[in-house]
UniProtKB/TrEMBL annotation:
Keywords, in A-Z order: Membrane, Signal, Transmembrane, Transmembrane helix
Protein name: SEL1L2 adaptor subunit of SYVN1 ubiquitin ligase
Protein source organism: Catagonus wagneri (Chacoan peccary)
Signal peptide extent: 1-23
GO biological process, one term: ERAD pathway
Coiled coil: none
InterPro entries, per the entry: Sel1-like, Sel1_AlgK, TPR-like_helical_dom_sf
GO cellular component entries: cilium; endoplasmic reticulum membrane; nuclear speck
Length: 687
């Protein structure tokens, strides 16, 4: 059991954090999280005093037991009974009974905390759940201790304490906790609060995966896929990814998978509040206003967002049903179909009811709606409210698939794959799975991966199977850390944001790798030493670049050019810029490469090629027009001067080389001079 002082420290941090919630109500970001109330400080203080009293009472009980034991021993001696088995059995029974009661109470508190956490919609409720976890952890509940360790690591409620988290994880690891093994592997791989040791990290991940950690399996899959501190091995990567993908697919079949927005910090760091991945609070209020005014399309959109919890909004079945019903009354076929879907799957607002689902699906299908047709197909396929009828199911799926509905395309693929009501036909199954996968249908992607992994109906390809399985694995519940990491960054909690993004980066998420590198590059984080930030950022940019991130590829070129986190190497920088320019049509890479050709940095000097690349950069991106104009003005001016002054008099005027007379930054001086001349001319023209 962990020290009392650690628990009290955790709870005190909770108290301080909760009392500050009320002061942050004016912040719009907190509106999104629905913070409206405050936990009583007196309640937590009362809890702390009770814990201390409990500790005292336990000590009193132990003293009484010792006194009773001494009396029993004295009586036994007086009676001449030398056999001490009787009082030993009595003592062990009392201890085991006390331990059982203690454990049962801890389990109940943990389950209660989990239930509150699952149903919570406010920070107050979440804080109450963690108070229960703290109580349960004090009673030796390992799962509660894992929750508290995670809270300390990721900075839930501003209570980040990595040293305390490591202490808890180490004690949990000794008890066989696979979650603790995974966490220690992650911390070792980055050197956060621990020694940077990739070999030790690999051992922790191996033990974690053996114990059942899906996150460790995913990390090992990515490492074997990319050859990170292990020999690259596609088959081993496939084995790890398949285990995780099977777990995720089972969740998806039960409609438990929720897509998560992955905000790129590199896209608009200056204006994070208006990122398209997260719905701004003011825009949400405007949409609500339009919905109330009768805008059917907005009603359906808000219903969908609340149904699955998208764009930073909480999942709220009651609001979803409210908007769908309004739109359905106005005649929206999509809304009718979504109501049918809600009743088919069942939830708090719309309890499972096959008859009601059939009614709304039929209403939508009669209007030719693809979602409604697919819904009727599902009812006949699984025999929900109607007898199982594969022929009817096939008919409805085909109609919906022709209208481009990916879920119907998947169902057709599954029927041909499994031979449900039709002859098995792997070629047709592959066709429909592929069509559905183009729209991102996750189960279709999963079955495609299965077919490529086993060579069923298609030529076996380990690389393709791993790539597809990896995409499914990234739909796991751990992706929920993306929005929490984003909001932490937005609120200025850089360390909390970095830890969450770094863990996701370790699992192979390209967006998390670039976001982690971006944060490290800013040197705002405090959990790593500053001298380690550029090398670690370089490593993460490199991993993101390998996964196809064009911005990261340019960054790798920049790091080699300036010598950030690695040795200065113009030739390697030019290579990375060339890849970004040729493969991703990056305007920035074209501009940088043009500059290097202009000055002969790492590559042979070529003015004509530099000029061409500058023009290509301007054509690729409108933002490059002004920089390219200035660069070309400077290039042409210098080129003209060189033609006039040096072409015929190279030997005579060698002492006038610009590098010697104006210094290494003479080109910047020339650009400044050109700008000054342009400003002067414009002022005279309009003056």
């Amino acid at each position: 059991m962990k020290p009392w002082s650690l628990l009290i420290e955790i709870l005190v941090i909770l108290v301080v954090t909760i009392t500050n919630i009320e002061a942050e109500k004016h912040n719009k970001n907190e509106k999104e999280r629905n913070i409206t109330t405050q936990v009583s400080v007196k309640q937590v203080k009362h809890f702390l005093s009770n814990m201390l009293e409990q500790k005292k009472s336990i000590n009193v009980v132990k003293k009484k037991e010792n006194l009773l034991e001494e009396k029993n021993q004295h009586k036994l001696r007086m009676r001449g009974i030398r056999n001490k088995d009787l009082w030993k059995i009595n003592k062990n029974y009392l201890k085991n009974q006390e331990k059982k009661n203690f454990t049962d109470e801890g389990d109940q508190l943990f389950k209660k905390g989990v239930k509150i956490l699952q149903q919570s919609k406010s920070q107050k409720q979440k804080a109450e759940a963690y108070i229960l976890f703290a109580k349960a952890a004090d009673m030796g509940n390992l799962k509660a201790m894992e929750k508290m360790a995670d809270a300390l690591l990721f900075g839930n409620f501003g209570m980040q304490n990595i040293t305390a988290a490591i202490q808890l994880y180490e004690s949990l690891a000794k008890e066989g906790s696979y979650k603790a093994q995974n966490a220690l592997g992650f911390l070792s791989s980055y050197g956060i609060g621990m020694e940077y040791n990739q070999a030790k990290a690999l051992i922790y991940y191996t033990f974690g995966s053996a114990g059942g950690s899906m996150m460790s399996q995913m990390i090992l899959g990515y490492r074997y896929l990319s050859g990170i501190n292990v020999l690259q091995n596609c088959e081993v990567a496939l084995n790890h990814y398949k285990k995780v993908a099977d777990y995720i697919a089972d969740k998806l079949e039960k409609s438990e998978g929720i897509p998560v927005e992955k905000v790129r910090l590199t896209e608009r760091p200056e204006n994070l509040s208006s990122n398209s991945e997260i719905l701004d609070w003011d825009i949400y209020q405007y949409y609500k206003f339009l919905a109330e005014r009768g805008d059917v399309q907005i009603q359906v959109s808000l219903g969908q967002l609340h149904l699955i919890g998208r764009k930073g909004l909480d999942q709220d079945y009651y609001k979803a049903l409210y908007y769908f019903l309004k739109a359905a009354r106005a005649g929206s076929a999509n809304a009718m179909a979504f109501i049918g879907k809600m009743y088919l799957e069942g939830n708090a607002a719309a309890p499972q009811n096959n008859s009601t689902a059939f009614k709304y699906f039929s209403m939508a299908a009669n209007k030719g709606n693809a979602i409604g047709l697919h819904g009727l197909g599902l009812l006949y396929f699984y025999g929900k409210g109607v007898p199982v009828n594969y022929a009817e199911a096939l008919k409805y799926f085909q109609k919906a698939a022709k209208k481009g509905w990916p879920n119907a395309q998947f169902q057709l693929g599954f029927m041909y794959y499994s031979g449900s009501g039709v002859w098995k036909d792997y070629k047709l199954a592959f066709k429909y799975f592929y069509l559905a996968s183009q729209s991102g249908q996750p189960l279709a992607i999963y079955y495609l991966a299965k077919m490529y992994a086993t060579g069923t109906g298609v030529l076996r390809s380990c690389r393709t199977a791993v790539k597809l399985y990896k995409g499914i694995c990234e739909l796991g519940h751990w992706a929920e850390k993306f929005p929490s990491a984003y909001f932490a960054y937005k609120d200025g909690d850089i360390d909390s944001s970095l830890v969450q993004y770094a863990l996701l980066a370790e699992m192979g998420y390209e967006v998390a790798q670039s976001n982690s590198a971006f944060i490290l590059e800013s040197k705002k984080a405090k959990i790593l030493k500053k001298e380690k930030m550029y090398p670690m950022a370089f490593l993460l940019w490199n991993r993101a670049a390998i996964q196809g991130n064009a911005f990261a590829r340019v960054k790798i070129g920049d790091y080699h050019y300036y010598g950030y986190g690695t040795k200065k190497d113009y030739q390697t920088a030019a290579t990375h810029y060339s890849i970004a320019a040729d493969k991703y049509q990056s305007a920035q890479a074209m501009f940088n490469l043009a500059y290097m050709y202009e000055h002969g940095l790492g590559i042979a000097k070529d003015i004509h090629l530099a000029r061409r690349l500058y023009h290509m950069a301007a054509q690729t991106s409108p933002d490059a027009h002004i920089p390219v104009f200035l660069a070309l003005m400077k290039l042409e001016t210098v080129h003209l001067l060189q033609d006039i002054l040096f072409f015929n008099f190279t030997m005579k005027w060698q002492w006038m080389k610009l590098d010697n007379t104006l210094g290494p930054y003479w080109d910047l001086f020339v650009i400044g001079l050109i700008v000054a001349v342009l400003i002067f001319l414009l002022r005279n023209r309009y003056g």
